[in-house]
Amino acid sequence: MIDDVPRRNLTKEAEVSDLRCIKALWRAGSAAWAVPADWWAPAVDAMVLALHRGQSVDHACAALGGARARTGVGVAEGLRDLAALYASLGRAEPPLTALCAFASGWAEASFAPMAELTCDDPLSGLATPPYLRTRLAELYREAAAGGLSPGSSHRLVVVSLGVPPADPFVRIADLLRAAEVMRATFPGGDTLALMPPARVAALIRVRLAVRLTALRRSLRGLAAEVVAHRLPETLASAVRLTLPQTPPAPTSRGGGGNGAGGPDLRLSTMSDREKLLDEIKAKGVVHGRVVLSSGKEADYYVDLRRITLDGLAAPLVGRVLLDLTEDLGYEAVGGLTLGADPVATAMLHAAAARGQVLDAFVVRKEGKAHGLQRRIEGPDVAGRRVLAVEDTTTTGGSVLTAVTALREAGAIVVGIATIVHRGGDEKLAAAGLPYRTVFSLADLGLG
Fold this sequence. Notes:
Layout: H1 12-29, H2 42-52, H3 58-70, H4 75-88, H5 96-117, H6 129-145, E1 154-161, H7 168-185, E2 191-195, E3 199-205, H8 212-218, E4 224-230, H9 235-240, H10 272-284, E5 285-291, E6 297-302, H11 305-308, H12 313-324, E7 332-336, H13 340-353, E8 359-363, E9 376-377, E10 385-393, H14 397-408, E11 412-421, H15 425-431, E12 435-440
Keywords: Glycosyltransferase, Magnesium, Pyrimidine biosynthesis, Transferase
InterPro entries: OPRT, Or_phspho_trans_dom, PRTase-like, PRTase_dom
Domain Phosphoribosyltransferase: 377-427
């Protein structure tokens, strides 16, 4: 028996010898194997190596389960074989997490051929990735025939689950819950698809994007990220959104380096909105007696320049505001300098990261007396649908000044958006424009 193998310091040659020994004991213990020739698979070696080194065997067990399923081995035969491995090492039985991982891998591999042959995923009842890609191809052909852009009519909403739990059955349950929430949020015949291993997608019409807030609310507690992708110009780019995603390397503060030790924003178990709220509470709320630009006094100051100009927080601002205003259909974004400038820039870059084109502009407090004498800097806004933004709304005066200047320049103002709302309700209501805010003072613990 080799139950002390993981605790020995071995040379490479000794380790190889031990691995062969463990494998031989395992094979001998699994004497009832129906077809001896198909017992070995690369996953067998991975399993032995993980046990030998004292590492977690969950991933190796899942791979072994998948390998067994692909060779036609039943789940009972496969689990008996796994038990033989542990018995050969003098251990009573495989731990529950190993059994769950094996069963999960076996089930996923067993159902995969069925998913390719049908339009529906057998576990969730949602469409399969191949069907979703077929539906995208149809949409792009229809758009081309009508001279339209798919991005103007549809969005691909993707719910991505966070870091996998230790129990693979919990991940399956989370996926099924996300699928059910997606089905309840978009019940009108939209294409809903399960995209293994951890994503659910919905191909929806733009007018349904107003339901994204309800979707995020329903997914609270599920450690899920929701992203609404404007469909890119080409079908190939749209198809790439449906392919398995490789997590990016962790991001570090500051330039250069390999990112070691930085937070992995993509795999965070928090939504962008939740992460932004934490950033504001930690960096953007200053306590002490201050006089606001409106002339009012307060016991605290919400300094969102510390957020909108922060290397980690600013991208969150852009993504959150894009999601919040998804249904308004605008071509450019900006507001009264200075507070609105980094907000608009964050949204511009967030849109670019999603394959979208969004212009930004700056509204001066008054027109220049020299040069082109423009009050609105940046791309021309005349005749274009624009969104007016600011970081904090206290009276509504600043953003409504920008709205007036934009209308004078011939822009079509479709709405107003802010990160934190403090007041100005009457003025904003009188403006007659859709008004969106990410947080209230109560959200910040200041109400």
